[in-house]
């Protein structure tokens, strides 16, 4: 007998007359689950129940809309996530051998063909995003009992991480040479950690320069990559001054960084300006616009800011993501042990002070008894 656990309940699966049978027992007890499986096998053998004929699995192209509909519901609060899956699904469908194959017939060999084809066009990171999308699609198809098995999908190794951090000398040179509005946007991101999309979507109504309880004002992020992206982020003095100067020369667009049409500036336009400047300053190719945010968060960690505060400032969905920016230096770890030692010393001294009078009294009594006896 073969059972397996999915979530909190057990499922059984076996082959009967050449057909795969898989059903949920709706039980969390493995002994009961095995009994249910045995009973069902007996009914099949006696002909009391029959195996339901499953409709042929749809092709990837035919299943695509059902997948996108599910993503739009499950990720309704994450507009950029929905866009991401839509874009990646389109790339999968561009590969005709994959698009025209039934989901049940997509195997490791076909996936490898896609990987080899796509790797000649884009980076490993981009290929991996498409593979992650395919994996989620097939897992949903399995949950919905459209297919029985999800093929193994291997993510490519060697993906380059966006871990470049500007040092302060590079930051000065970059901001000094930046054309507008790249200069102001770069300053905003490196001092507040906003995502590029969050910075470009910023409206003047979200900028609070004279707020009680805030030294230099703050910006309010209305929405972003995740639900946790909605947050208030404090400003630094130089960002405060940047906003004041920008407001004075504003063309009265509701957006802080508006394009010629009054709409938010496009990320692609900003990225082109950044790449030209990066090349002119001979900075590493690993320095992308996102590196400005990564620099902000890394500096927070180096300054000793704990992970939960970094999570709130960054708008991360989990503290696990924020923890990678916390890198205690040897000096910081030595200071932490020194603080612990100081606390222990104070506690021991306090304990000794309360015990000392009792020791003195006992000693005096003992001496008195010795004198009387003599």
How are the SSEs placed, and which strands pair?
Layout: E1 3-6, E2 9-16, E3 19-27, H1 30-46, H2 60-74, H3 79-93, H4 96-99, H5 108-119, H6 124-143, H7 168-177, H8 182-192, H9 196-200, E4 207-208, E5 218-221, E6 231-234, H10 237-248, H11 267-280, H12 290-302, H13 307-314, H14 319-323, H15 330-373
Antiparallel strand pairs: 1-2, 2-3, 4-5, 5-6
Helix pairs in contact: 2-3, 3-6, 7-8, 8-12
Describe this structure in words.
This protein is mainly alpha-helical and 374 residues long. It folds into three domains: 3-46, no CATH class; 60-143; 168-323, hpI Integrase, Chain A, CATH 1.10.443.10. 55% of the residues lie in helices and 8% in strands. The protein has helices at 30-46, 60-74, 79-93, 96-99, 108-119, 124-143, 168-177, 182-192, 196-200, 237-248, 267-280, 290-302, 307-314, 319-323, 330-373, and strands at 3-6, 9-16, 19-27, 207-208, 218-221, 231-234. The protein has a three-stranded antiparallel sheet with strand order 1-2-3, with helices on one face. A three-stranded antiparallel sheet has the order 4-5-6, with no helix packed on it. Helix 3 packs across helix 6, helix 7 packs antiparallel against helix 8 and helix 8 (182-192) runs parallel beside helix 12.
């Amino acid at each position: 007998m073969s059972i397996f656990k999915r979530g909190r309940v057990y499922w059984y699966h076996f082959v009967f007359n050449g057909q795969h049978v898989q059903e949920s027992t709706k039980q969390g007890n493995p002994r009961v689950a095995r009994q249910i499986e045995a009973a069902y096998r007996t009914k099949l053998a006696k002909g009391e129940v029959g195996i339901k004929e499953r409709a042929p699995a749809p092709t990837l192209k035919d299943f695509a809309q059902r997948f996108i509909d599910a993503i739009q519901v499950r990720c309704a609060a994450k507009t950029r996530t929905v866009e991401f899956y839509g874009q990646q699904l389109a790339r999968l469908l561009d590969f005709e051998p994959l698009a025209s194959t039934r989901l049940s017939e997509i195997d490791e060999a076909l996936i490898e063909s896609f990987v080899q084809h796509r790797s000649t066009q884009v980076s490993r990171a981009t290929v991996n995003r498409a593979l992650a999308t395919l994996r989620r699609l097939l897992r949903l198809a399995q949950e919905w009992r459209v297919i029985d098995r999800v093929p193994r999908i291997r993510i490519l190794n060697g993906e380059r991480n966006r871990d470049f951090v500007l040092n302060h000398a590079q930051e000065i040179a970059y901001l000094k040479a930046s054309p507008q509005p790249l200069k102001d946007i770069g300053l905003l991101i490196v001092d507040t950690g906003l995502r590029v999309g969050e910075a470009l979507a910023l409206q003047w109504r979200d900028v609070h320069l004279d707020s009680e309880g805030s030294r230099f004002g703050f910006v309010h992020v209305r929405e972003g990559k995740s639900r946790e992206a909605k947050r208030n982020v404090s400003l630094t003095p130089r960002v405060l001054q940047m906003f004041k100067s920008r407001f004075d020369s504003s063309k009265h667009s509701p957006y802080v960084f508006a394009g010629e049409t009054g709409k938010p500036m496009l990320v692609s336009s900003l990225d082109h300006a950044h790449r030209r400047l990066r090349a002119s300053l001979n900075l590493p190719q690993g320095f992308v616009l996102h590196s400005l945010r990564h620099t902000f968060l890394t500096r927070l960690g180096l300054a000793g800011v704990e992970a939960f505060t970094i999570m709130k400032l960054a708008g991360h969905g989990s503290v696990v993501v924020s923890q990678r920016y916390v890198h205690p230096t040897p000096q910081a770890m030595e200071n932490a042990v020194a603080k612990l030692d100081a606390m222990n010393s104070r506690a021991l001294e306090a304990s000794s002070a309360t015990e000392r009078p009792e020791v003195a009294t006992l000693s005096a009594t003992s001496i008195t008894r010795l004198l009387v006896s003599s």
